[in-house]
Each structure stands twice: as C-alpha cells, then as structure tokens.
Amino acid sequence: MKDKNYASFIITKIGNKKSYDRLENYILNKFEYSEIILLFNEEFDMDEIHNTLSPKSDNILCLNIASNTNEDSMIRAGLEFSKGDLVFVLKDIDIDNIENYLDRLYEYNKKVIDISFLVTKYNNIRDNIILKSISLFSGTKLDNIYDIIFFVTRRVINSLSENKSKIVPISYIIRNIGYKYEYINCNIKKNVYKLTKGNRSSYLLIFSEVVSNITFLLSVFSAIISASVGIYSILLKLCGLGNLQNGWASIMTLLSFCFTLIFFIFSILIRYIGLLSKELENKPNYKVISIIKFQ
What we know:
about 50% helix, 8 strands, eight-stranded mixed β-sheet
C-alpha cells in the first residue's frame, strides 16, 4: 500500500538515466502523491531532457536558476517551491541501494524526527584541515561530513523561510534551526566529495572568530617576542655579556612591537568584517529565470 503523504524530491544533479529511472520508480511505488523538482543553473534544452529521461511521473517541475547561483541557494529555491509535507533533497542519485537509504531516512520521521541526513566524509586533506582548524579556533565542533541526501518536513521549511542568509550553507542552517536530526553514515569510495571554494569562504565568514583568534594569537606571540628581545638586550647590556651592534635592540623591539600592533588591528578588522557580513545577509539569494513543468 502506498504512503498517503505528499513527498517532494529535489534533485540537484540528474546523473545517468538508469539512476534516474530507479529513483523515479521508487517514488511512484512508495508514495501516492509526489513531485520531482529538477534544478538547473545553466541553459538547458527541455525537449532534450524530456526525451532523455522519458519520465513516468506527470508532476515534474524544472527550475532554471541564474547561472551565478551556488548549490546551496539552488536547494533553497527548490525547498521554497516544493509543496510536499515531506521533502527529500538529493545531491547525488548515482549511489547503490538508494531506495534503502531513502526508506531509512523516512523511518526517522516516524520517530518524530524532522530532519535526517545521509552523510559521508570529505576525503580531501585540505578540507579536513580547514574543518579541524575551524573547530579548534572557534570552539564549535564542525563535523567533517558531506550531505549526499537529506530529508526535512514542511515545518522545517517554514522555519527555514525566516532565514534569508546568502552565505551560510543550507545544511548548516538546517542543523541549527532547533529541531532534532539524525545521521546515516555511508561510505562511497567511487565518488569524491569536496568542499566548494564558496563553502570554504562561507565557513570562514560564519566562524569569523577563527581568523580573528589566529591573528590575536599571532599578536600575543609578537608581544612575547618583543618583550623577550627587550629583556635580553637589557641583560646583555647590564651584565656586559656580549657586544651588541648599535641600534640592534631598538630595531628588534620596534619591529616586534609593530608586528604586534598590526596583528592586533587585523584581528579587530576581521571581527568587524565578520559581523558586518552577517548584517548584510538579508538579500535575495537566488533568481529563478524560468519554471517549466513536464506534461
């Protein structure tokens, strides 16, 4: 017997036809009422896509998003256009046993959990270092995980509509919206998932205190060097333990002091810019160029 809930499936990347057919069959067999939302951020030929996919569903919506829109903003557009009580966001449909994963994500909802994720680790060394550094210097644990698929309920989307951020990754917002969430771990060796350049920058803006804390530590380190050089120079002078080059102590002290001051000013500016960026978040974060529905 089919589930009576209305389910929306948002797909950011179609992949190959075999994967799409498998997913579509699952959707039509699982839910009595459903819709599929395909996201594009470039020019596409609708007839070609229709002929390639040969869709069985009569409720498929294609959103053509502006070409300069990142994946997170595209997903936000899909969520806001979705009508389902249950919404699945699929960033990769070319994975084995996708039907089982979708069932397991949905099972969490029956346990009164509004959000669930199918995740895997970033296997890029640079991404690991960035995420660990953010966790270390911000004091906030940031998990090294990539969301392959995630599931949300309508009330999560309603809450999400109150947040108009342009820069914060959508998964980070959803995790911090206040509802309970659960993970399912999935190790996929054939696909390599990496942080995008935009997301790296976004995390540094979210945790602006990271760079601020690093520059502050550098200013403290420079201050210690400055004080040490001064004390060392005075001891050598008083004790007559060595011949100092004229002006050496004053130059070293001055340079150390200058570096201390520069790093300290940088830490203040970075903190200010971080706060300023958060104030400027409430801007339109995507533009839908066209909406086409398969008939």
